[in-house]
Amino acid sequence: GTACSKAEAEVALDEQDYFNSYARLGIHEEMLADKVRTEGYRDAMLANRRLFEGKVVLDVGCGTGILSMFAAQAGARLVLGIDASDIIDEARKIVEANGMQEVVRLYRGTLESFSLPAGIDKVDIIVSEWMGYFLLYESMLPTVLLARERFLAPDGLMMPSKMEMRVSASSHDRLAFWQDVYGFSMASLGERARAEAAVEVVPESSLLSASCLLKALDIHSISDAELDFTAPFELTLTAAGPVSSLVVHFDTFFNMRAEAGVDTMFSTSASSTPTHWKQTVLYLRRAAAMHAGDRLSGTIGGVRAPDYKRGYLISVSWKSSRGDADTQLFRLK
């Protein structure tokens, strides 16, 4: 029996390794297949060959190396890619298979332990795809800001350079499902679900307002401390309906800060092509019945939870011009 159980244990471990590696690969496939994301970065770089030619580029969290290779295509003299995960071994093979190993150098490890190679004092451009759900959930932005402080030349360029978090009012309410499940009320599960921020693609037809700016992030100057925030919003309804949820998305800007530069952007809004970030939906405990022209205002805050397992906390305080008001706390995990 012992030999058998040992063999079974080895099979179980092999399976675990297999699923783990596939899960990692699946994540990369999802990101690469996201055309809005991948083409957004590619177009920003290839439209700005004049700014990339002869430059040194740092790719933070390079993954499969796709952004590093775009930077090389755009004319960079040297591209340094760094990633702490196993994918770096595959990325090296990919870079070699595409004949870019002379320009693209990949390093495995954390940014904290990384130092620039001999002869390179600073980098001219930092590129990174660091964004998370709700922009800031489990994002790599703190690491990117550390890279900026340590390695970016004084007149260097961050790509992306600016982010905007935006919020809209919506009648979307997937959680109404729990009111009648095969004739039974499961409303208590709906209440539990309302305590969690949902990540889903919201139908554009459910939007009851234009989006308003919640928070702008200048990636050239923002500090880590500013990533925990509370910001005001005010929405004017463009259509009547029950406001069942607030929908948060982000827009990504590549502003080149140079006369020769071509500015580009992409959006993750419900009005745009869906991305793997989808939108973040904050379901209100009480839907607010509102008419076109009514106003909904308040604050939305985001903070990294001190206990990592609890992820990210989002607070919402709102009031309508019709007198309804509420305050809610959401978890994102």
Automatic annotation (TrEMBL):
Keywords associated with the record: Methyltransferase, S-adenosyl-L-methionine, Transferase
Presence of the UniProt keyword Transit peptide in the record: no
Catalytic activity: L-arginyl-[protein] + S-adenosyl-L-methionine = N(omega)-methyl-L-arginyl-[protein] + S-adenosyl-L-homocysteine + H(+)
UniProt KW Transferase keyword: yes
Single GO term (MF): protein-arginine omega-N asymmetric methyltransferase activity
EC annotation from Swiss-Prot or TrEMBL: 2.1.1.319
Domain of life: Eukaryota
Ranges where the Protein arginine N-methyltransferase domain occurs: 172-319
Domain Methyltransferase: from-to ranges: 57-156
GO CC annotation terms, alphabetical: nucleus
InterPro entries: Arg_MeTrfase (IPR025799), Methyltransf_25 (IPR041698), PRMT_dom (IPR055135), SAM-dependent_MTases_sf (IPR029063)
Record lineage: Eukaryota, Haptista, Haptophyta, Prymnesiophyceae, Coccolithales
Coiled coil: none
CDD domains recorded: AdoMet_MTases
Matches recorded under PROSITE patterns: SAM_MT_PRMT
GO biological process: methylation
UniProt-recorded name of the protein: type I protein arginine methyltransferase
